[in-house]
Design brief:
203 residues, alpha+beta
């Protein structure tokens, strides 16, 4: 299976970058948190192990109005979009309506359309993003906006691989919950896994 096939199988709704065997062995540095909840650590499994639409929407409701809440929900969004088989078209449309901010841009803006036209990948029965050893870096933060880079490990057909991928998500506080305004690539995976902070838990 080529790297291209794997990354396509995993990333269905966000702009992400991908790399095999990123540099490891360097301690992760703590990222300063400019908001009042500096001591809190984001949860990398906020949407639960099932990683379904109901869990993601509940995570959106549960995520507090804080940097920690934005990072945790951003991680949940990345996990949900990275799963294979894809969610149903109905679930994709429901999730898109709930989690996309006004004027959303980037690949994430096509979340519903991607869900309506799922692809299949020979030899791949399941794939997911695991954040148990994932990392995050807050690139910029205000009380109502957090831009965060999140990365995790690839799981294919129930087995870990040596590949990792990530994405930078801009989260905004809108209508009383965190939503996604845009996605992209802010830093290399080497930088992310060398300098990023660990989650309090992951799945």
């Amino acid at each position: 299976m080529t790297g291209l096939v794997v990354v396509l199988a995993l990333v269905g709704g966000v702009s992400a970058w991908y790399q095999g065997s990123p540099r490891t062995g360097e301690p992760a540095a703590d990222t300063p948190a400019p908001t009042a909840d500096a001591a809190a650590i984001p949860n990398g499994c906020l949407a639960g192990a099932l990683n379904d639409a109901d869990g993601l929407l509940q995570a959106q409701k549960d995520a507090p109005h804080s940097q920690t809440g934005a990072v945790g929900f951003g991680a949940a969004v990345l996990r949900w979009t990275a799963q294979y088989p894809r969610a149903s078209a109905n679930d994709a449309a429901t999730v898109a309506q709930s989690i996309l901010a006004r004027g959303a841009s980037g690949t994430i803006a096509d979340l519903a359309a991607n869900g309506a036209a799922p692809k299949s990948y020979p030899g791949v029965t399941s794939a997911s993003l695991n954040l148990a050893d994932g990392r995050y870096v807050v690139e910029e933060a205000t009380p109502d906006m957090v831009r965060v880079t999140v990365g995790g490990a690839e799981i294919v057909n129930g087995k870990s691989t040596d590949r990792k991928f990530g994405s930078t998500l801009t989260m905004v506080w809108e209508s009383g919950v965190w939503k996604v305004r845009s996605d992209g690539s802010e830093r290399s995976l080497d930088e992310l896994f060398a300098e990023g902070s660990a989650f309090s838990g992951g799945c």
